[in-house]
Amino acid sequence: MISQKQIKEIKQIGLKIDHDVSFNGKSKGNNHLQRTVNLASHIAKKVGANLQVVVAAAWLHDTALPTGDDYNYKNNLQIVKDILKDITLSEDDRNAVAECVASHEGTKIPESLEAKVVHDADVLEKVGILGLIRHTWKMTNLKNIDSEKIISDDLKKIIEHIEWRKNMLQLEESKNIAKNLTIEIDNNIILKLIERSAQMANKGVITEKIAVTLKDILNKNQLLILEKQLNQKYLTI
Questions:
Q1: pLDDT by 10s per residue, the chain, length 237
Q2: Domains of the chain, each with CATH number or no CATH
């Protein structure tokens, strides 16, 4: 069993990598990891997954980002195992956490219940309006799109990625949450949102601060959905 002291150590490692190492520190202060932990904890309790494994993996799920490729299953698996060498865990717990992290991006179908939970928690951070902002932020800072010139192909790829992630949700509990976090948005509005997000992301502005600038782009209902995604008051942790 993973102790609370070990969870705290793991949390500190995950946050340090996410805030200080990934994207050269441009994402410092964002709350993605905490929201993912909240979602994963909520889902784990609902479906009876191992809560300690899920929480540990949720804190570490983005530790491959500094490599520039967090979609490589084998590399992700090894990165997490290396990180966990300095924490006294059973081999079963270490392997379980590593498996959750390695399969969280959907390039390998998650097999264990815990891996499905962590995968889905991360996906729920990529659905709807928040997902559009976050994926645009990532693509901008990986230099996969030009923040000053968003073309139709960029728009198409971002929308398709969000839809692909949503369609990969594994658990019914997660699918029900996703239904409450999505709202129809016209492509012209999405384009404006992506353009704003890309320009601000290029300047190192984090997701949460981008979100509060969108009142002139989104309507009242869309803003309420985005607020719900960010504050997670719909969850009972």
A1: 899 999 999 999 999 999 999 999 999 999 999 999 999 999 999 999 999 999 999 999 999 998 877 888 888 999 999 999 989 999 999 999 999 999 998 788 999 999 999 999 999 999 999 999 999 999 999 999 999 999 999 999 999 999 999 999 999 999 999 999 999 999 999 999 999 999 999 999 999 999 999 999 999 999 999 999 999 998 975
A2: 4-119 (1.10.3210.10), 126-231 (no CATH)
Query: Considering Cα of 73, then 78, then 81, then 83, what sign does the dihedral take?
Result: negative
Place of tokens 């998650």: 110
Q: What global pTM score does this model have?
A: 0.95
Characterise 29 by phi-psi region: left (phi > 0), alpha (psi -120 to 50), beta (else).
left
Here the tokens at position 228 are 């719900």
CB contact at 8 A, 45 and 66: no
